[in-house]
Amino acid sequence: MSRRSIQSGKGKAGELHQTSSGPRDALTTNHGVRISDNQNSLRAGSVGPTLLEDFVLREKIFHFDHERIPERIVHARGSAAHGYFECTDAIPGLSRASLFSEKGKRTPVFTRFSTVAGGAGSVDTPRDVRGFAVKFYTDEGNWDLVGNNIPVFFIQDAIKFPDLIHSVKMEADRGFPQAASAHDTFWDFISLMPETMHTMIWAMSDRAIPRSYRMMEGFGVHTFRLVNAKGKSTFVKFHWKPKLGLQSLVWDESAKLQGADNDFHRRDLWEAIDSGNFPEWNFGIQVISEKLAEELPYNVLDPTKIVPEEIAPVRIIGRMVLDRNPDNHFAENEQAAFLPSNVVPGIDFTNDPLLQGRLFSYLDTQKSRLGTTNFHQIPINAPKCPFANMQRDGMMQTFVPKGRANYEPNTLDEAGEAAGPRASKEGFRTFESNTELGNSPTDKLRVRDETFGDHFSQPRMFWHSQTENEQAHIASALVFELSKVGTEHIRKRTLSVIRNIDHDLAKRVADGLGLKVPAATPPFREPVDLGSSDSLSIQKNWQTTIRGRTVAILFAEGSDKDAIDELTSSIEGKGGSVYLVAPKVGPLKVKGGMLQADGQLAGSPSPLFDAVAMVLMPDQVEKLMKDSAARGWVSDAYSHLKAIGYCPGSKALLEDCGIVFDDGIVPNEKWAKAAARRYWDRESNLRDLA
User: Fold this and answer.
1) How far apart are the first and last CA of the chain?
2) Tens digits of residue pLDDT in 571-619
3) pLDDT band, residue 506 (cuts 50/70/90)
4) Cα–Cα separations (whole angstroms), residue 186 to 17, 159, 164
5) Among 113, 231, 249, 596, which lies 20 to 30 A Cα-Cα from 95?
6) Which residue, 330, 357, 377, sits at the end of a domain?
7) Residue 369 known to bind ligand
8) Residue 679 annotated in ligand binding
9) Which domain CATH number covers 216?
10) Which residues contact 342 (CB under 8 A, 6 or more apart)?
11) Is 148 a catalytic residue?
12) Which of helix, strand or coil describes residue 377?
């Protein structure tokens, strides 16, 4: 297709439409029907529900859902665990859902965490959004809350999801890079889609390189509805907040972990549960009235927007504890099928156009992955409450239905036969109104509402909510990602879009790339100042605790066992766990007895741990000064801003490695307290951040 045959225009919300000037270059369905709009789904009103008659959307999603077998197309690499949800604050006034009806009521759950872009054989710690999906086995049926660790998404309309994923996956001709967004096609796509900027800046922050699944927030992303027994509805957003607090890696640490342990997050989750340190999250809701929704300067049905917690506080109504590892990775983790369409009475959908597309897509995907419409009979997917319907047969049917009743209505009971189940007055009822936020339900439109057109105010709010150190990480991440983009005009266009977020951010990135700051791309809507929100910063919410963290103690033959035991006791007394590292696994003869290391020095690099300490004699230190693994162990811990404990003998190793002593480099007797945090002020002396 020649470049001159493409014409560009803007839609009602400022989205880019590229159209062809002739029939030869026209975009068509698989059956040759020319497509007039490839940016918007067909819906009833500009913010109405997506219509099933949209064959363009259904064909595009249908094909996308079946592009891979049997691995998941996205979220392929995942880790999961069983547990329970406990209601801590009943909300019958807001929702009739039984799991929220009574304080103390427990509901079994199965939770799966995942990366997005990489395949099942990729690594755990790349820069990426993380999936956070929870299956609640309620006594009214299964509810699947299928979200991410970032509260917004790249796109506003499901019709663009195949394009987004195609752009971020490995490039189609060369098959690389795997599990990475630092390449041309991704940045080409998002620099043409301003709506992606909010999620982009979250993905360039430390949120995209979490320390552990146990220290990661989760979000339902979309605006849903809660409906009470009287049929009254209110908008709601769902939040998971980790009891251990937010914690992230630094980029160099993340990269080194990809070499040290491909399964770092999977192993961390498994071992925490296996040792009885059960991960726990608080479950909260943001309740958003219609009045508040109408007053906001953006549309709450837009999945690229958040409602700051300062405007709609998060009310904690429950907690989730994961207390059992899967018995079989394939049978449970791989065969788990999560569907956003799985809701229970009291929880309902809104007209969020991305959510509307997901309601179709996920069910279709499970047929492709699991090979049968009977995937709900697989134990991990089966509800734990009674279930019955008239659906029979199908591939891999495991039930043996009896009798003739596979339809209704029927009167077979009059002949003494089982007549089968019937609809219930207590069953799920869809919230009836379709006039939310001024929507007209009488029109069928392929448009995007104008209130979805502000793409920069919230990314700007996120940027201004970060600490100076976090801002440096974002700018540096952008420099790294765009430095991998080989096409110059894409780098420049991305900078012109970023200018609408913040001029200083664009300049820092441009300086890092050796480019001049281009003029800003004219926004569809001028950004407004939304202030800042401390809840968006990891460092402002960092919990100074060692609980749930893993720290390492380096020792060798001849080390003082009493000193090691004292350090171990001080850490375990604060809820942390200790991993012993030595040049040899052992058992080794030490002062006071024998000691077995948990890991060998070269195979246990310091990126695996949250803090490190050394208990060494001078002659051991002299040997370790010549050992590159030991020098790297210390230097990486320092570079990754971790606390380092030392004894008089090991101090010489720090000095020999050029370590500059600060508040995080402490004698061993102060190490347990120092290990509860990272030392962000150190970073400016270590690396050139943008």
Assistant:
1) 39
2) 999 999 999 999 999 899 999 999 999 999 999 999 999 999 999 999 9
3) very high
4) 18, 17, 8
5) 113
6) 377
7) yes
8) no
9) 2.40.180.10
10) 135, 141, 142, 143, 144
11) yes
12) helix
What Rg do the C-alpha atoms of the chain give, in angstroms? 27
Distance CA 286, CA 309 (A): 8
Q: Looking at residue 615, which CATH number applies to its domain?
A: 3.40.50.880
Residue 362 known to bind ligand: yes
pLDDT at 25: 74
147 is a domain residue: yes
Tokens coding 224: 């849903």
Element housing 650 (H / E): none
Q: Tell me whether residue 72 is annotated as binding.
A: yes
- The answer to whether position 66 is within a domain reads no
CA gap 83, 280 in Å, rounded: 10
Out of 40, 142, 148, 469, the active site residue is 148
Q: Of 332, 353, 377, which closes a domain?
A: 377
Indicate the residue type of 328.
Answer: N
503 is catalytic: no
Is residue 324's pLDDT more than 50?
yes
pLDDT digits (tens, 9 = 90+) for 386-426: 888 888 888 888 889 889 988 888 888 889 998 888 888 78
Q: Is residue 87 part of a domain?
A: yes
Cβ atoms of residues 641 and 250 within 8 Å: yes
The one catalytic residue among 40, 75, 222, 469: 75
Global confidence as pTM: 0.88
Q: How far is CA 372 from CA 88, 141, 312, 375, 395, in A?
A: 38, 20, 42, 6, 5
Residue 361's domain comprises 78-168+210-377
